[in-house]
Amino acid sequence: MFFPISHADVNPIYLVVVGFLIGVLGGFFGVGGSFIAGPALRLAGIDWNFAVGTDLAHIVGKSVVAAKRHRALGNVDLRLGLIMAVGTIAGAEVGAQLIEVFKRAGNVNVVVSVVSIVIYVSISTFMIWESWKTLARAKRFAGPKKSTVPAAKADESAFQHVTKKIQGWRIPPMISLRESGVTISLWIILLVAFVGGLCSGFLGGGAGYIRMPSMVYVLGIPTHLAVGTDLFEIIISASYGTFTHAIKGNVDILIALVMHTGAAIGAQIGAISTQYFAGPKIRLAFVPLPLIGAAIVIYTMFSGHKL
Amino acid sequence: MSPRSKTAVRQTLRAFALELVIYAALVTGYFFAVLHFLGGWLLQLETQHIRVYAVVAILLIIGQAVFLEWVTTSLLRFLRGGRSE
């Protein structure tokens, strides 16, 4: 099928399947999935600029569907999402400026590649350690005592002692997040969001791979709420990204709509599936995602073939 | 799992599957409607009024997500005779 805006000839079934897979991942883990969607669009022969912009447009739609589903399940903290959107947009702008600095220095590709590999591998390693330890501890202390929290929504973390310390930093103004059951300094929320935005602007994509884990480990948000809130936050930041890319002529909305036909279905399945898994299991299943991202970057670095 | 909760899970999954089938049909129809009625206009906007195109692009993708889900929910409520389930 020919898409006249991007002048690309792509099989729509391929776009629907890619959209569906990314939709399932997004609904389940609260990530945009651009580290897979971007290379997948490139493989279909779509120019790099259109791949990035169009991917963002489809992420907006998919996140709306998944966030609505998570909201119905009580997994979205709107207050936290709105605060985080401010920090994310600011961070994304700084990240984009950093890219320009390294572009002028002539080493942007090497720097971005090395930084992204370090970040992806660090997140995965940390999450394997933490979720493994949490699951082992839960098994050891599993007794006859009944929990008041439904099994699937039960959330423990081996990193909780550090999270509690961070929550104890009383830097005014303190924000009470009733839905998440957390009271924390506004500045810490903004800092977490800013770092996520910085990664998004500097490394590309929505940076859900760093924001979702940091919401759990730094802010102490329960995993299910972190997934839903991250998706809500992605709606705002990806809409902003879509607009800025669209005015540069980088968005083919027809390709995005085809991808979204698959993504909308996948996102609902992913979101519903979170109800059947406890927090540490979701985090453990999350581990391969940043590793896939790292593998793609290593491949492009050594083959010189930009996916 | 007790037989009663098994039945409840089966009913929930069936309702969800029905919702997905209706939603998938609507989403596909939406794309073809946009392609047929707005395809040429979108191409023209992209080349001549890029800012309007950017706004329309976001509205189309959010519209697809919000409007079609509302249609699906309303349709299901109608099919179930007013029960929201």
Written account of the structure:
The complex is a heterodimer of chains A (307) and B (85). Chain A has helices spanning 12-29, 34-43, 48-72, 78-105, 108-140, 160-167, 186-203, 208-219, 223-246, 253-273, 279-286, 288-303, and strands at 2-3, 8-9, 174-177, 182-185. Chain A is mainly alpha-helical and 307 residues long. Chain A is globular. The relative contact order of chain A is 0.24. Chain B has one domain. Chain B has helices spanning 3-48, 50-79. Chain B is mostly helical and 85 residues long. In chain B, helix 1 runs antiparallel to helix 2 (50-79).
Give the helix/strand layout.
The complex is a heterodimer of chains A (about 300) and B (about 80).
Chain A: E1 2-3, E2 8-9, H1 12-29, H2 34-43, H3 48-72, H4 78-105, H5 108-140, H6 160-167, E3 174-177, E4 182-185, H7 186-203, H8 208-219, H9 223-246, H10 253-273, H11 279-286, H12 288-303
Chain B: H1 3-48, H2 50-79
